[in-house]
Design goal:
The protein starts with 6 loop residues before the first helix and ends in a 13-residue tail after the last strand. The protein has two domains: 41 residues, Winged helix-like DNA-binding domain superfamily/Winged helix DNA-binding domain (Arc Repressor Mutant, subunit A, Orthogonal Bundle); 80 residues, Alpha-Beta Plaits (2-Layer Sandwich), CATH 3.30.70. Helix 1 crosses helix 2 and helix 2 packs across helix 3. The chain is an alpha+beta fold. Strands 2-3-1-4 form a four-stranded antiparallel β-sheet. GO terms for molecular function: sequence-specific DNA binding. Keywords: DNA-binding, Transcription, Transcription regulation.
Length: 153
């Protein structure tokens, strides 16, 4: 379901995506509005589900999570039981930052953040011990060129 947004809504969302910790006064200044209407719009955007939650974005390298792997998974299993077990396994693994089911030759792609290659191997061994997988290919990201949580508005 699409939600209709006007220019002020988009400005508010852009300001929140830039820094959700800024004050209502700062957001109001950026949007050319005043504090109360901005607060009311934010409440409506939350109620509509446009704003899912507020969070802090951490620097993985400063936390020692220097290795980012993209894990390509092919499976010969497509039954509901296998998919449920696979989903539960991924949900339980904090190293998995993103998981996507794909169309094409690869069934799933995971973005996995770990300390190093040894930590990735531990993740891999745990994954294949919990769920049967036909083929796994891990690609190490050599350099992160762009990373954002901001959606194009």
């Amino acid at each position: 379901m699409n939600v209709r947004l006007d220019d002020t809504d988009r400005k508010i969302l852009a300001a929140l995506q830039e820094d959700a910790s800024q004050s209502l006064d700062e957001i109001a200044k950026k949007t050319g509005s005043s504090k109360t209407p901005v607060w009311n719009r934010i409440k409506k955007l939350r109620a509509a589900g446009v704003i899912k939650y507020d969070t802090s974005v951490l620097d993985p390298e400063k936390l020692g999570l220097e290795a980012c792997f993209f894990v390509l998974i092919r499976t010969s299993e497509h039954e509901a039981d296998w998919q449920d077990r696979f989903l539960r396994t991924l949900q339980a693994r904090p190293e998995v930052m993103e998981a996507h089911r794909l169309a094409g030759d690869i069934d799933y792609i995971l973005k996995v953040r770990v300390h190093n290659a040894r930590a990735y191997d531990a993740f891999y061994q745990a994954l294949i011990s919990e769920v049967r997988i036909f083929n796994v290919t891990a690609l190490l990201s050599m350099e992160e060129i762009k990373s954002t949580t901001a959606l194009p508005l």
